[in-house]
Design brief:
The chain has about 325 residues and is of the alpha/beta class. The protein has a single domain, classed as Luciferase-like domain (TIM Barrel, Alpha-Beta Barrel), CATH 3.20.20. It contains 13 helices and nine strands. The longest helix is centred in the first third of the chain and has 18 residues. It is globular, with a radius of gyration of 20 Å. About 45% of the residues are buried. GO terms for molecular function: oxidoreductase activity, acting on paired donors, with incorporation or reduction of molecular oxygen. To bacterial alkanal monooxygenase alpha and beta chains.
Amino acid sequence: MAAPFALSLQDLAPIAEGTTTAQAMAETILLAQEADRLGYTRLWYAEHHGMPSIASSVPEILIGSAAAHTKDLRVGAGGVMLLNHAPLRIAEAYRTLEGLFPGRIDLGIGRAPGGDGHAMRALRSGGGEEFSAYLAELMAFDEDGFPRDHPFSRVPVSPGGIRLPPMWLLGSSGASAQAAGQLGMGYAFAAHFSHTPPAPAFEAYRYGFKATEAFPKPKTMLCLSVVCAPSDEEAQYLSHSQAVSWALFTTGEQRKLMSPEEAHARVLTPQQQSVIDHQSTLWIVGSPETVRDTIAEKAESCAADEVMITTTMHSYELRRRSYALISEAFGVAGR
C-alpha cells in the first residue's frame, strides 16, 4: 500500500534506563541515517527542557549533526519554542544551518515552553501573550522588515545572503491554524498529545491560507504517536514503557525511560492509571497492518498532506525496527 501522504518522523532523543546520555546522542545519528535509508521525508527534533528522559534540549545542534550524517533527508526543528529565545538568535542559528545544508532544513515554531515553570524561569522565557510579537520579530529579521526608525533596523542578521528555511507553525487549535495560513507557513497539528480533532483546524488553515515563496500551496502535517512491532501483542507489551513513563511524568515523577519489564511491574496509583486511560486513546499501537490502517484512517479523515510519527520505546534497536516496519507497510521507497 503506497501512502497518499508523505511520511516523516520526530526524534525526542529519549534516554533509556540502563543507557548513558552519550549513547542517546549516538542513537540520534543512527536513527537519522536509518530514516534517510528508509526513505522518510524529514526528521524533526523537539525542544524540551528539564526532563531526564529526553535529550533534545537544543534542536539546532542535533539538526546539524543529523544533516552532516545523511544525504537526502530533510532535517529540522519540531519545534523551536520561540518564547525561550531572542528571535535574532533563532534567525542566526537557522540561517547558518540553511547555509551549511541548503534546501534540507526546516524551522518549526511552537509557543509552548518545552518544560515546567522552573525551566521557564531558568530560560527567562517570555509570557504566552508575547508569542505573536516574537514571531513577527523573527520574520522581520529575516525579511529586513523593521521600519527605518526601529532600533533593530540597524542590526544586520549574520550570516547574510541567506534566508530562513521553510517555516512551520506547530499547534493544536483553530487559532494557531489560522495564524499559519495567514502567514503562509506550513501547519503541523499535535495529534500525538492533543485530543482536539485536527480536521477543523486544517480546514481553517486552508481557508485563510496566503501563498508564499516557501509554501505556494497549503501544507498540513499530522503528528502521531506510534509503536509498531511484528505483532499486536508485542507492540502492546513494548508500549508500556511510554504509558507508565507518561503517567509518572504527569504526576510529578521524572526519570529516564523505563523498560517494558519494569513498566509492567510498576504499581500505579489510580491517578496515574487514569492518565494512561485518557492519553492512550491517542496512541497507535500494533502490528504493521494495524498501524498502517489506523494511520491511513486518521490522515484521510483530515486530508493530511504528511504524517509525522514519533515513537517512544525503551530499546533503541526496536525503535528503529518500528520505523522500518511502518515504512515497509506503506511501501515507502528506500534510498
